[in-house]
Fold this protein.
Amino acid sequence: MAYRTKKPLVVLVGPMGAGKTTIGKLLAAELSYEFVDSDKEIERRSGADIPWIFDVEGEEGFRNREVAVIRDLSTESDVVLATGGGALIRQENRDHLTRNGYIVYLNTSVDQQFTRTHKDKNRPLLQGDSDPMTVLTELMKVRDPIYRE
């Protein structure tokens, strides 16, 4: 009989402002796992912050970087991984994460998301001329069914 020696990957998904980073750090400490934030890993690897990547490469460029990071991180064990709010919009990310980890959806209301994120300049999708509340509402309509898969 073979025994599992590796601890699983725990993946936190959900909208921006759901508390993935905050809860992820606490959970990782409780489990004696490493905590990794996929957005921070993208910044570390690229040497640039996310708003800069969005400005220069657009959302598509950012999502391509995100795929590479998630592909690499999905093979890790003893890790709590907090993903960016849009990570699961790419099927390949969903495939990597569901195949290799336990997915936990942290849900929160759009009102709570707005309260937690509307002043954060590191949220490129909330910058510009669009009303942040409208953007968050539209993102939830599209992403909530994906988070629930």
Notes: The chain has six helices and four strands. Helices lie at 20-31, 38-46, 50-73, 91-100, 110-117, 132-147. Residues 9-147 form a domain with the Rossmann fold fold (CATH 3.40.50.300). The chain has a mean pLDDT of 91.
